[in-house]
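## tool: complex_structure
## caller: assistant
## args:
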Amino acid sequence: MIAAVFDSIPAMIVLTGVLVGLSGALLGSFLVLRGSAMLTDAISHSIVLGIILVWLATSQLSGPVQVVGAGLAGLATVILSEVLGRSRLVRMDAAIGLVFPAMFALGVLLISLYARDVHIDVETVLLGEIGFVWLHTVPLWGAEVPVTVLTLSAMLAINLAFVLALWKELKLSIFDPGLAAALGLAPVAVGYGLLALTSATAVAAFDAVGAVLFIAFVIVPPATAFLLTRRLAVMVVLAAAVAVVSVLSGYQLARLWDVSIAGMMATMTGVFFAAALVAAPADGLLAQALRRRTQRLDADCAALVAHLATHAGTPAMAEESTMRALVDHLRWPDARARAVVLRGLDRGLIRRDGSGLVLSPKGDAMARALLAG
Amino acid sequence: MADSALHEPGLALHVEDLTVAYRDAPVLWDIDLDIPPGVMAAVVGPNGAGKSTLIKAVLGLVRPVAGHVRLFGRRCGDVRRRVGYVPQRSSVDWDFPASVRDVVTMGLYGEVGWLRRPGRSHRARAMAALEQVGMQDYAERQISQLSGGQQQRVFLARALVQEADIYFLDEPMAGVDAPTEAAIVGLLKGLCDAGRTIVVVHHDLQTVTRYFDWLVLLNRRVIAQGPVAGTYTAANLRATYGGQVVLLDAAEG
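## result:
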């Protein structure tokens, strides 16, 4: 049965995607909160140099040696960027932008010089080829298991252990590094641990999704989850869910339209982000627009109540309280005046009195409070 | 002097010859500072005087160029459990996904220790601290939904829960409403009455004599220090602020 799963190419492709997505969501939730999205971008590019250097030194394109060795290149980018940024000769974001393209370019140059004949080429470096993960397998418990699946499973286990064990340390060192340091919880070391695992995971995921698409899996699902919740544990779980659903739907659509599988999976993370951006219940654009509309209506309502109260009991009341007056005197367009009156009626602030409007007792109380304050 | 030996154990805070520089430019020059236990002390000075830097250097968050710091006669690293710290409210991102109770529990993370989770007793203590600042009803609220005054109360509760012997607070009264300010001062005075030492970076000269009994005037150097009555003088304030300040009731002080 197990062998059947590992023999199924689609199952292996989807499993690879899920493993990348889960690792990405776990680490990415903390990276996004830490404001390290750009640093992730830098890491995933500069590991290219690490990968080619490790390959030149050991002829290995995967396995623990490569994960650690190439992972160090990612960490080197972080350290170099911080050294350059701390010199204050360039800004921090520029420092990151200066270091990683140089390392990436050097990696690409080395590939074109020394690795023309092996399967590693520039396109694979950027996008990976998740469709071919099943080509390179090792026997395990009587099944042929893709090496990438093994490496990614190991990374996921390490990432999960790291996040669970250091949950509160990660939380405090991101929220308030000063207090973390004052309590002796070494926020700098915790931060480097997180970035080191990000580097190692980027290397492990490299075969499958490449350097560029890896960022999508680390940043987009957590950013989506952040729009939907303000609870850290819920955010991590939601990010993982978005990643898994993106992988599953991305695979189906890629098959349907015969397009790049990893590309479609990453696109789906973007689709879910866009959906959350528009429709998130509390912070989404729709919710914000609705809230603004309600606020404007209520402000208009207050103006109407004040207007009616000012003229209440005066000879001009009969004229001032008509719909006509709202349009002519308050200078509200027809539709807006109607919407305000409807809102006032809904809230029980005003009622109809022949052709005019009068304040209800509730509206009267509101007017007194408004005009007094 | 051996590292383990106590140095000035009779003082809550003892700072000697402390110089702190950010990239070669000294921010604090040769600070000598003593604060006895059980006082409520204000650190006052103009913007850029190095008030926050002084606190960070005392807590070991920035590395000094020279000098040393002792808390109750010991190095800061040896008395972490006895030291409470309330950074400036603006120093953290209040959009961070955490509840009020989460943030207060963070004060106990040092005590909980590496790799361990806060337990029931820790949560109970966090609730008790929230009650002290009148925020118990907000325990489950997300911190992104708090007002400025509520944020400050939460930060204060996070320090209270540490049950420290000396507290350092960086501008706890900045940008809070009058009731919150009164509540904060009341709580700090209560701690002080219970024998704790309070060190507050403060920005409002008018309230110094009302709130505090010890005063440190700072402008890159220590201009004056001691009990408020003898330190809050027109001459000292002028020396600290270089005449830019309207000296309200300094003469009375």
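## assistant note: Residues 225 and 231 of chain B are 6 Å apart (CA to CA). Strands of chain B lie at 13-22, 25-35, 40-44, 66-71, 83-86, 166-170, 197-201, 214-219, 221-227. Handing back to user.
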